[in-house]
Design a protein that fits this description.
Length: about 450
């Protein structure tokens, strides 16, 4: 087959950055359809093997998958281009929308749109739990792990890393004691589909740059350390360790390193730190940020750019005259600290992953973690449902209009199989109607 040129790949990744709607599941589906089914750049098994590794990592799995495929095709620069173009359009879009939100959020038109979108986002998160659960929970053992994860986070308030580590250990034990229940996909052979010969096929040996080298790994870690340390040292020198920009950089570095299970799983951690811990945004602003993240291209975790923009803007870090500049700089810095580890994980770990095809000891922990993520996402859905339907808390008024919009959105997503963007657009129109009729709580 004809090799893929760097220019061809560049054009595809640029296009993907603008059309990657639908959250992680939608973005992965787009890459699968384009790269596996249509273009045949790599086979189904190689795609799933890369996806397994990305789902095992903390951070945005869809963007990491793009980096992995870009790296596999065109070495380090291929991975960098794929990863950067995946997030750059959404960064600029969210900075713009963040400014519109803060400057005109009280205008009835904008308020009505957000009023409709928020309950629809709750339905989207419920759909994510339903969709991932249907794919991942193929037997009673995996259902048990998902239920245990939900109990651990909802009732026991255990931290995410502990839940993920526990699920990974259970998956590893399951792969040893009951291997048929912990195969990739819960024993259902999703990787058996074949779409014809691929450029990187099942039996294609890893290219030279995908072979493990201690020298390459050491050099990469040194470069990554410098790229993190220089901006952090500059922030400390300019604003001190307790400065808001410094704390944003440190907090979102920890979010990138310590939170597993994809974007939906990381959001409660971001909420805990950004709302409760530091006060950068309010609970309402956090939910509005998720609504924007769901309705714009790029990884859902780009909601961190909105959180940082709002924090920098409202806190007027550079004075009232430079509020937009403070917000834009905060959003850019947070994006850098959030996504830098993803590049290091893929460029450093990719060669090891390329040598572990079809090994149960590698995939079984992932199967356990994927099951646990279902329980974590269900917890997140309940969290957002509470804040949307009882905006003043359980002692306040139940928002019937929001409940109707959420129910209609769930019906559209789950029964009529409508897309996320289509559903959010309809919900926004309903929100405008509710505001026009004066029915909003």
């Amino acid at each position: 087959m004809v090799p893929v040129s760097f220019y061809q790949a560049f054009v595809f990744w640029l296009k993907l950055g603008f059309i990657s709607f639908g959250g992680p599941a939608g973005q992965i589906a787009i890459m699968h359809e384009e790269l596996v089914e249509k273009r045949r750049w790599l086979s189904e098994r190689r795609f799933l093997h890369a996806l397994n590794y990305c789902m095992l990592l903390p951070g945005p799995e869809a963007q990491q998958l793009a980096i992995y495929i870009g790296w596999l095709l065109h070495r380090t620069w291929g991975g960098i281009v794929a990863g950067v173009l995946f997030v750059l359009p959404s960064l600029f879009i969210l900075i713009t929308l963040g400014w519109v939100y803060l400057a005109f959020g009280d205008v009835p038109l904008v308020a009505g749109i957000f009023y409709g979108i928020k309950p629809a986002v709750t339905a989207v998160v419920f759909q994510a739990a339903w969709r991932i659960g249907g794919r991942a929970l193929k037997n009673r053992w995996l259902w048990a792990i998902a239920a245990a994860a939900f109990v651990a986070i909802f009732f026991l308030r255990l931290p995410f890393p502990l839940i993920v580590i526990g699920a990974g250990v259970l998956g590893a034990l399951g792969g040893w004691l009951a291997p048929r229940y912990f195969q990739l996909g819960g024993g259902h052979g999703a990787a058996d589909k074949h779409y014809g010969p691929a450029l990187i096929d099942d039996d294609t040996p890893p290219p030279e740059h995908a072979r493990f080298s201690w020298w390459r790994l050491t050099r990469l870690l040194l470069v990554g350390g410098v790229l993190w340390l220089l901006p952090m040292a500059l922030l400390v020198a300019l604003y001190g360790w307790q400065g808001h920009l410094t704390q944003m950089g440190w907090f979102f570095t920890k979010a990138a390193l310590l939170t597993f299970g994809g974007a939906y799983a990381v959001l409660p951690y971001v909420y805990q730190g950004a709302v409760t811990g530091h006060g950068w945004v309010t609970p309402t602003q956090m939910i509005d940020g998720l609504a924007l993240g769901e309705s714009t291209p790029g990884p859902l975790i780009m909601v961190v750019a909105f959180v940082a923009f709002v924090g920098g803007y409202v806190l007027e870090l550079f004075g009232p005259e430079q509020a937009f500049l403070a917000g834009a700089l905060a959003a850019t810095l947070v994006t850098w600290f959030t996504f830098l580890p993803s590049f290091l994980f893929i460029l450093g770990g990719g060669p090891l992953v390329e040598s572990t095809h079809n090994e149960l000891k590698f995939t079984a922990p992932l199967t356990g973690i994927t099951a646990a993520v279902v329980g974590v996402i269900l917890n997140l859905a309940l969290f957002f449902g509470y804040h949307v339907l009882w905006p003043q808390g359980f002692d306040g008024r139940f928002d019937w209009a929001s409940a109707v919009i959420a129910a209609l959105a769930a019906l559209a997503l789950l029964h009529f199989k409508r897309g996320v963007m289509e559903t959010l657009t309809g919900a926004a129109l309903l929100g405008l109607l509710v505001f026009w009729l004066g029915l909003a709580s």
